[in-house]
Amino acid sequence: MTDELALENQLCFALYAASRAMTAMYRPKLDALGLTYPQYLVLLALWQRDGRSVGELCAALELDSGTLSPLLKRLEAAGFVQRRRSASDERRVDITLTEQGRELRGQACPIPSQSAERSGLTPIELDALRDTLRRLTVALTDHTRSEEKHR
């Protein structure tokens, strides 16, 4: 009989441990760039599409503005991004990369492939894992939102 509450049987623990291991693998690479892992994620979103609003970044990164704002302030203080109020809507704050932020992309380019190599998984396995995790995230997020509506 399987122990339903055994730590090694918990998907949540496997995801937690994998996330910690991934972050630890990235840490030395990002330290060399002067970035934390969450700051790196913000820059990835901006390297993909520069000039996003705070709200757009929140949606892309699945973060609330209270979590994102301090990250943006630190990235701005480091000289990687600029925050500006929109001329057409003063409630909107737009985030753009600085020249230094754009240049950092070139230094960060090798990180994903190096990380993939160290994972011990094939490119097909990595793609399948990422797709499975995305489906899991959507399902759990949808379920949580549905429960919150019925409270």
Task: Please tell me about this protein's structure.
The protein has 151 residues and is mainly alpha-helical. The chain has one domain (7-120): Orthogonal Bundle (Arc Repressor Mutant, subunit A). The protein is built from 7 helices and 3 strands, in the order H-H-E-H-H-E-E-H-H-H. A 3-stranded antiparallel beta sheet has the order 1-3-2. Strand 2 and strand 3 (93-97) form a beta hairpin. 8% of the residues are buried. The mean pLDDT is 94.
Task: Give me the secondary-structure topology.
Blueprint: H1 11-33, H2 37-48, E1 52-53, H3 54-61, H4 65-77, E2 81-85, E3 93-97, H5 99-108, H6 110-118, H7 123-149
Antiparallel strand pairs: 1-3, 2-3
Q: Briefly, what CATH class?
A: Mainly Alpha
Strand portion, in percent? 5-15%
Low-confidence stretches: none
Main β-sheet, spatial strand arrangement: 1-3-2
The string of secondary-structure elements, in order, is HHEHHEEHHH
Would you tell me the structural class of the helices and strands? mainly alpha
